[in-house]
Write a structure and sequence with these properties.
Belongs to the bacterial solute-binding protein SsuA/TauA family. It comes from Neobacillus notoginsengisoli. Keywords: Signal. This is ABC transporter substrate-binding protein. The chain is α/β, with parallel strands linked by helices. The chain has two domains: about 30-115 and about 220-330, 3-Layer(aba) Sandwich (D-Maltodextrin-Binding Protein, domain 2); about 120-215, 3-Layer(aba) Sandwich (D-Maltodextrin-Binding Protein, domain 2), CATH 3.40.190.10. About 45% of the residues lie in helices and about 15% in strands. The protein has 16 helices and ten strands. The strands form two sheets. Strands 2-1-3-10-4 form a five-stranded mixed beta sheet, sandwiched between helices. Helix 2 (about 45-55) packs across helix 11 (about 235-255) and helix 12 packs across helix 13. The radius of gyration is 25 Å and the shape is globular.
Amino acid sequence: MKKRFRAAFMLLAGAMLLLSACQEKPAEKKLEKVRIAEVTRSIFYAPEYVALAKGFFKEEGLDVELTTTWGGDKTMTALLSNGADIALVGSETSIYVHAQGSNDPVINFAQLTQTDGTFLVSRTKVDNFTWDMLKGKTFLGQRKGGMPQMAGEFVLKKHGIDPHKDLNLIQNVDFANIANAFAGGTGEFVQLFEPTASIFEKEGKGHIVASFGTESGHIPYTTFMAKESYMKKNRATVEKFTKAVYKAQQWVEKTDSKEIAKAIAPYFDDTELDIIETVVDRYKSQGSFATDPILDEDEWNNLQNIMDEAGELPQRIEYKTLVNTEIAEKVK
């Protein structure tokens, strides 16, 4: 009888302990889903991948779903059709949308990169490069109307080169095929993004001779943006998102390129770690990664000047019309 009583008592005590443990365990917080459409997959966007890899979005209670949409037009279509909540794309796209008479403007709320991300690559090794060496040469440029092409032309004109008269300018090659066209023998110079520029240099297919990012100055090259209606309805979410981005920007600013490369490597399976490190270091050294999410007015005006110079600015848009810095300033 005593044995049965003792056994029953122990079972009851165990059950009470288990119940107590269950009651004391805090309920797991449900993460809020946020869908990002990024214009391309690029080491240029390192802070975005850091925010994902280091769990900064999750720390803010966000479950971020990242989709690469491969092109500005497709990215904006995803955002405008509610296929994405937030877009990572060039700020010029918000100007194009606004010029078309949108009733729900796309608002730039957090800047990620603050320079152009392309480099001038020469087929042959050039010692003591000067920009006038491009005159009379075949130049394989970027797609007309895109920010790389506009920034590229802006830099060329800055150095006294008319891209449409002083060069044999090729602009009819799709973005995805520019590198292959150059590798196949087209052009004496080419404007390339990383990591392709560094890969070509490592493989002896080309030589980096200049940076368009350094030459074109600070511009809101890539920003996080959302429809005005989404921002009004989900202000707290956008604030949490911006906070995570800022954490990542600060981490990138304070961390060496080798550690950054290791953190973002899972997002670039086809790129060797040493190349990722080289690219990150190059972008860090020229200040391409914004150190905070604030898009300032001088950058906005510089962007429109570059677009205007290229003949691609549909109309000049006031800074406060398409830029909201309230959240970024609060986060900072």
